């Protein structure tokens, strides 16, 4: 059998010890090229500008609002940039838990802000969003907000309002922040953000948060289908246009990444859809210490008598299944025991609402568009313990027609929005829906941070949403 012919371009390689000066010359040339590439890459890295991100929250902006044709500026950002079908908030679908989940990537029972109002048995203290001393106390806030992650990686941050930004979490604060002022006009908030962008390069923040509450206020007071909500939608769109105009005047509009999110949606409610707890159980003689939070997530704090707790829970389960208290066909709520050892008594797994002492002993969750109250609350004749808690954390109910949130986070009414535009994002992309805990890692990716440079979180580094919308 003949040997195959030798290839005409075959090269016979000498052993290294026989190559002499030719080898050394090649080796030297390779080393110089390698060093040159490293130096060039270093200079490129040195002169690559740090991205700028403005994370905007429009409280209470439910997904359906985008279909009304009242927000052309916001819609244009999403159409020409990237947007998700919708974003799923965390349970409970309330303001503080979800804002903090967005910036930490953690579910509420992990970061600790389990609702807008709650009791911590370890501290023997209450947290309430209306209590400035609690809101600014770092002991309540677990996890690492992205402004801390940014600062740790030498990226200056600034917060024009955001839950948690006023507390020295991990003994840190953003480089710039404003104490919350509910009445500050939108234009003043935006002017503050633009002022930060006017700072010299070494002082200028590159991660900025901006928060608006007026739409949520209108939704609560008048309901999501009201004229007042439509007016608020027009106003917030005008505010976003004002921000873009300011960026354009500074020649920053094409180099700034804008992300618009909401914390939850809004469901219409009215007095006719009320669940009266005192029609279902004896609130004064059932072992209840207090009702820490009312509708649509009712949190009951019990005493040490576990038999009384189990009995009350069973009463509530029977009421929800059999329709006691004048509610035929079953009451529109579900009751759970978050600390039970019986899996059947636990909240749904997708809520991740257990294993934290702050969530209460019994929780009741109304169906969308229903509210939980008591006749004693409406008449102002609550028992002493409930009266005390009402006065400080849960105002008395009155006949009304408005809006509420805090329901099952997968309910369509609770769906929130995600819209993004800027140099980091693909154009004209519609991504799948995703959970809001993914925003933290999305921010990390925009700033080029590795997984090792971020804090532990419940999201996914280089997640599906990041792959779908980032360049």
From TrEMBL:
Family matches, as InterPro entries: Alkaline_phosphatase_core_sf, Phosphodiest/P_Trfase
A Pfam family reported for this protein in Swiss-Prot or TrEMBL: Phosphodiest
Record key words, sorted: Membrane, Transmembrane, Transmembrane helix
Gene Ontology terms, MF aspect: hydrolase activity
Keyword Membrane: yes
Residues spanning the membrane: 21-47
PANTHER family, per the entry: BIS(5'-ADENOSYL)-TRIPHOSPHATASE, ECTONUCLEOTIDE PYROPHOSPHATASE/PHOSPHODIESTERASE
Protein's recorded name: Uncharacterized protein
Source organism: Fonticula alba
Taxonomic lineage from the root: Eukaryota, Rotosphaerida, Fonticulaceae, Fonticula
């Amino acid at each position: 059998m003949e040997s195959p012919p030798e290839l005409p371009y075959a090269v016979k390689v000498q052993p290294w010890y026989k190559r002499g000066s030719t080898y050394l010359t090649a080796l030297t040339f390779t080393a110089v090229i390698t060093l040159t590439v490293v130096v060039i890459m270093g200079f490129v890295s040195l002169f690559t500008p740090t991205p700028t991100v403005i994370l905007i929250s429009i409280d209470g902006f439910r997904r359906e609002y985008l279909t009304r044709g009242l927000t052309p500026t916001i819609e244009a950002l999403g159409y020409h940039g990237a947007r998700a079908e919708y974003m799923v908030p965390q349970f409970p679908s309330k303001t503080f838990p979800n804002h903090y989940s967005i910036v930490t990537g953690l579910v509420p029972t992990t970061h600790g802000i389990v609702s807008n109002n709650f009791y911590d048995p370890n501290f023997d203290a209450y947290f309430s969003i209306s209590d400035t001393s609690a809101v600014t106390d770092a002991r309540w806030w677990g996890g690492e907000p992205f402004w801390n992650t940014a600062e740790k990686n030498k990226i200056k941050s600034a917060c024009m309002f955001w839950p948690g930004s006023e507390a020295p979490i991990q003994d840190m604060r953003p480089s710039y922040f404003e104490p919350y002022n509910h009445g500050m006009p939108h234009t003043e908030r935006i002017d503050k953000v633009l002022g930060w962008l006017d700072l010299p390069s070494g002082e200028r923040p590159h991660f900025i948060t901006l928060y608006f509450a007026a739409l949520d206020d209108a939704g609560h007071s008048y309901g999501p289908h009201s004229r007042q909500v439509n007016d608020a939608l027009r106003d917030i769109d005008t505010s976003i246009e004002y921000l873009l105009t300011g960026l354009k005047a500074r020649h920053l509009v094409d180099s700034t990444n804008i992300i618009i999110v909401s914390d939850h949606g809004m469901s219409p409610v009215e007095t006719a859809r009320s669940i009266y707890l005192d029609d279902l159980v004896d609130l004064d003689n059932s072992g209840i210490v207090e009702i820490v939070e009312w509708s649509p997530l009712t949190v009951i704090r019990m005493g040490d008598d576990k038999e009384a707790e189990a009995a009350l829970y069973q009463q509530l389960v029977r009421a929800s299944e059999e329709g006691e208290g004048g509610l035929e066909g079953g009451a529109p709520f579900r009751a759970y025991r978050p600390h039970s050892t019986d899996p059947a008594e636990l909240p749904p797994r997708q809520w991740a609402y257990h294993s934290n002492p702050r969530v209460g002993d019994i929780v009741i969750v109304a169906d969308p568009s229903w509210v939980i109250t008591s006749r004693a609350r409406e008449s102002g004749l609550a028992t002493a313990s409930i009266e005390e808690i009402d006065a400080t954390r849960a105002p008395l109910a009155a006949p009304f027609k408005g809006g509420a949130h805090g329901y099952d986070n997968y309910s369509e009414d609770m769906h929130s929005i995600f819209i993004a535009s800027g140099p980091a994002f693909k154009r004209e992309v519609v991504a799948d829906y995703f959970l809001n805990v993914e925003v933290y890692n999305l921010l990390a990716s925009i700033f080029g941070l590795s997984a090792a440079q971020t804090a532990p979180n419940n999201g996914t580094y280089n997640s599906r949403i990041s792959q779908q919308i980032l360049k």
